[in-house]
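Task card 7
Instruction: Convert sequence to structure tokens.
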Amino acid sequence: MPRRSILIFAGACAVIAAALIAVTLVLVNRPLAGAIQPGEVITAGQADVGGPFQLVDQQGRPVDESLLQGRWSLVFFGFTYCPDFCPTTLQALDATKQQLGDRADDLQIVFISIDPERDTPQMLKDYLSSDGFPEGVIGLTGTPAQVKAAADAYKAFYQKVGEGEGYTMNHSLAVYLMGPDGQFRTTVAEELGPERTAAIIERAMAQG
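Output:
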């Protein structure tokens, strides 16, 4: 093949590859039709999010969905080996609690591991005691089947990537705001920022 033809062919392949990547990113990041968007406050019972789970906390104590009764809760799925999104989200939630002031006393943060292979109760306990994370975060883990059941209840995506000790986890980034009745209210996300997230939570609290 002449050199000019090779260059044209290679350039065309690069354009096609870039287009495919762009389409993939759009599909991955585009919300599903009818999906609740971060910050869209709804009333209890309007979204099929949340439900029964059987896990253990960082003290090794069995817990279930009754953990969410009586207080507002921010439920977040992640893992302790996460290099970026999980720590930044926890730090953002710490800043959000500071924005809430006294209202933060009515709010608990629940961190559910999607990496039960490595995230033992002790690992969660050590991780959540790190500086810069909110105080009093409840860490939950369990068997692979228990973790999957909890993630399925919240429509949370996760996937193991790689093999051996160096594997990582892909996972969704939504933080679920649950009311004191244990029912879903809305989602928030780290990119909203502490002020806007706090305003969304306050609005949900005012609506009950």
